[in-house]
Model the fold of this input.
Amino acid sequence: MEAKTVSQSKVEIAQVMMPEHANPAGNVHGGNLLKLVDQAGAIVAARHTHTNVVTASVDRFDFISPAYIGNLVFIKASMNYVSKTSMEIGVRVEAECLKTGTHTHIGSAYLTFVALGKGDKPTEVPGLISETVREKRRFEEAKKRREIRLQHAKPHRHRQQASIIRPEKLK
Done:
């Protein structure tokens, strides 16, 4: 399995916020933004691994500024760190007012994804090549965050269900 660079999997999604994305006051619902954050993270993870990926965790997301109907929202996501079967992706959300051209930082988060292989079991992922000073710094910071996540997760380990009965099998 060949290691990949950060640039090989990064993604930027842009979407204009419409009335269905917002409340009556014109503020975009946070859930709509979080959905885009998760989608961008999943794209990065899937591009890096070429496997099915699932969200394992989302670190804290603080809404620094609102986004409004008519704003162009950018979701910028890139790989920070990989371990054996999991990956941390950093995501930054920005909004651009198309009338004024003003850019606003909406918020940022770190998402952890796990690559799945046969039988939906975690599978090994390619290594990560950090090319720039910034990418190397982000890798080391993510490594420390992973250690903290693992310390907090130990008492709450997810237990694999023995079997999942899908609705179509109940007929």
Observations:
- The chain has a mean pLDDT of 91.
